[in-house]
Amino acid sequence: MKKNLLGAFFALLLSITANAQCSQYPTLSLGNDTLLCQGQSLSLAVPAGYDSYTWNVAPGNQPSVTITTPTTLILNVANFTQNLVVNGDFEAGDTGFTTGYAYGTSPAIGGILWDESTYAITTNPNLVHSSFFTCSDVGTTGPGNMMVVNGSIIPNTNVWSQTINIDPNTNYSFSAWVTSMENISAAHVSVLQFFINGIQIGPVFSPSLNGCDWQQFSQIWNSGVSTSAIISIVAQVSSGNNDFAIDNITFNTACVQTDTIVVSYDPNTIDAGANVAFCQNEPQSVTATANYANPSFTWETGATTPTITPTASGWYTVSAVSPSGSGCVLRDSVNVNITLMPWGFDTVVAQPTSCGTNNGAVYTLVHGPFVGQPIYTWNGPGANNPNQINASVWQNLGAGWYYIDVQNQGCHRRDSILVTTLNPPIAQFSANPTSGYGPLTVDMTNTSSNSSDFQWFFGNGNTANVNDLSSQQQVYDTVGSYTIVLVATNGNCSDTTSIVVNVIPPPIPPVTVPVGIIVPNIFTPNGDHVNDLFTFELLNIKSLNVTIVNRWGNPVNVSNTVPFAWDGKDASGNLVDEGVYFYKYTAKGAQDEDLEGQGFLQMFK
């Protein structure tokens, strides 16, 4: 138990020491979580006072980032003490490290590193191998030395190693710069691993495939209980051409800080709609929508409806306040392109055609300006007639409607006009009467014009051909409908009209059904079966209501049955007293005639 307590105390002491060591550096803070409105962005810069920094949303050591989408943003920063690596920049030459490579001594013309598994400390790779590029080192502080390596044929060869005394439970930053010696393929690039105390730190690393393109490997490492660090760089590949250079190896105490903020966006959006293009004479509307219910829109034109009809080209912006309570003003824009049409019809003219011939014509006159030449298209007669001509004038036409379309820049103006017939015949007549019982005599008066040739079709099989306006007469005997047709002709032209005459069946005289009610005035309900019942004699009566009252006006019998009969008893079944009684009735006959009556009757026992 004492040992455990001492261990916990020692760990706490180390933590206090580390915190005190890093307290000289500013505390990292990116601020509070942020809610942005749609379309906004957030730019954040690394605060001053840090030696190294990385964002989780951007590669490399970028001093600032701009956020345009919902993101959990993480910034890692570090401050480093003095480099603990001895001669990490090789400015002191071939000293301070161990290696599994041999120093190059080849006598070949190509240089001292002509042999594999050799290295040299030099200011220029090309000086030690004629195939290597001329490269400068990273951050020269002296002669500009670097360690240049001709790759080993033995895999996992130690390239560089150094042992450093360290403090336990302390964060350290390890970094090294590596470059290829020439432009190579991925199959021949060097593959390096970095170890501390025999344990790999970070991923397997390869430099760029381009020669002299220095790339940095860096990793944060915590010493735990270790008091020394054996740092090793190991080459993994044994194939040829895995040649590289190393420079600026550093190992520093690292004060690492991390801060995170959440950048979110108001989820509500509005959409001004798709961009539109249309001609000036065919306006279109644009409609704003939202991804939430009951939006309240305001267009920059001042309109507050979802739909507007633009009258000029340009961008139209709509806005709405988000209902989320964020205060965001949502905006979107739509582009409207209206093709102006400063041209149109001056006149559209038709010349009539002679009766029975095709010598009519149509033409149009327009005013500009136009872009290029306008395109004219006439079609007709009739809107759907495929006959057409591409010209402003169309001749040799028959009667009918003709339609003109003028096009320019993809926009159209349209009009129509009627080609009429000169002095066409007009068929017209009257008939009197047009309805009645047969035999029905009908007189027809011809009021046609522009014609002296008439054909009559009377609908009863009779016809007539006349050359004047003489009246006609026909007799129609049989019940039915007869269509009288008049055809008026003038040369090759004709006109037709008609009137329908109806011969109706004669009326059927009504049948009268006699009705009647005979009421006796005395009866004797004494049980002798002679005149024991007070009854009505009915003739074609279908309903009857009878009320009998005594001399004081009290009802003694009420009946609505057909036939009617009273046996002289009241509602309790008792025979009423002798005397005078009053009766009243209403009735309906077989043809719903209304009948009514009243009177006195004498009852004797």
UniProtKB/TrEMBL annotation:
Transmembrane segments: none annotated. Keywords: Signal. SMART domains: PKD (SM00089). Residues 448-503 form the PKD domain. It comes from the Bacteria. It holds the Pfam family CHU_C. SUPFAM superfamilies: PKD domain (SSF49299). InterPro entries: Ig-like_fold (IPR013783), PKD/Chitinase_dom (IPR022409), PKD_dom (IPR000601), PKD_dom_sf (IPR035986), T9SS_type_B (IPR026341). Residues 1-20 form the signal peptide. NCBIfam families: Bac_Flav_CTERM (TIGR04131). This is PKD domain containing protein. It comes from Fluviicola taffensis (strain DSM 16823 / NCIMB 13979 / RW262).
